[in-house]
Amino acid sequence: MFLSQLEEKDLNQDMIQKIIFESFENTTEKCDVILVLGSKKAHIYKAPVASQKYIENQGAKIILTGGKKVTEKKEYELMYEALIQEQVKPEDIILEKEAMNTKENFVNILPFLQEHYHMSCKLMLITTAFHMRRSLLTAKTNLPESVQVFPYAAEDQNTKKDNWFLTENGYNRCLLEAKKIITYVKNGFIVDDMI
């Protein structure tokens, strides 16, 4: 069954689990680039994962993307500060300052990938588990096939594979994410995929 064949009425707990959490495994692949997608709490959940993956992937560059203001600072600025505290070298961090959504995260890094990797590299994608499926499909839609994308989920507290359904907030976040995926596929914003 394809995502495009689903309707909102199909979104029970089991289907949401399949759509959101059972579509990927964390990579062990050595990558050239580590892309960290911004969010309100990316500096808390994603930056520590990026720091660890940076250590494991010697020579990799980290791209921080996210132009939304969180407080008085933007997403990428908070992540940058967190990475510097984790001893990541400033010269290994690339800042994408304008992206306001998932599509822009990928479209806006294309010039960097072209200039430094001629659109041929292994890219580790770091975002939360509940956002990974849509992010992978957005990458597949907007990046060339020569950019191989490997997922690595940073876990937040309320939307993990084994607890998202335990709280109203976690359930509603994942339900909304599943609805977005189906809507985006049906509207042609992201490629269709098997469930």
Could you explain the architecture of this structure?
This protein is of the alpha/beta class. It has a domain at about 25-155: HUPs (Rossmann fold). The protein has helices at about 15-20, 40-55, 75-85, 100-105, 110-115, 130-140, 170-185; strands at about 35, 60-65, 95, 120-130, 145-155. It has a five-stranded parallel sheet with strand order 3-2-1-4-5, with helices on both faces. The longest helix has 19 residues, at about 170-185. The termini are close together. About 40% of the residues are buried. The model has no long low-confidence stretch (mean pLDDT about 95).
Observed structural traits:
about 200 residues; Rossmann fold; 5-stranded parallel beta sheet; about 15% strand; globular
Topology:
Blueprint lengths: L12 H9 L11 E5 L4 H15 L4 E5 L9 H11 L7 E4 L5 H6 L2 H8 L3 E8 H14 L4 E8 L13 H19 L9
Helix pairs in contact: 2-3, 6-7
Write the CATH homologous superfamily of the domain at 26-157. HUPs
Beta strands, count:
5
Cα-to-Cα separation, first versus last residue: 6 Å
Task: Output the strand order for the largest sheet.
Answer: 3-2-1-4-5
Cα shape: globular
Task: Assign the CATH architecture of the domain at 26-157.
Answer: 3-Layer(aba) Sandwich
What series of H and E elements makes up the topology? Answer: HEHEHEHHEHEH
Strand content: 15-25%
What CATH first level of the domain at 26-157 would be assigned? Answer: Alpha Beta
Over all CA atoms, what is the radius of gyration? 16 Å
Figure out the total of helices: 7
**Helix content, binned percent:** 40-55%
Q: What is the residue-mean pLDDT, rounded to a whole number?
A: 97
Main sheet: strands, sense, barrel: 5 strands, parallel
Secondary structure category: alpha/beta
**The CATH topology of the domain at 26-157:** Rossmann fold
In the predicted model, the low-confidence regions spanning at least 5 consecutive residues are: none
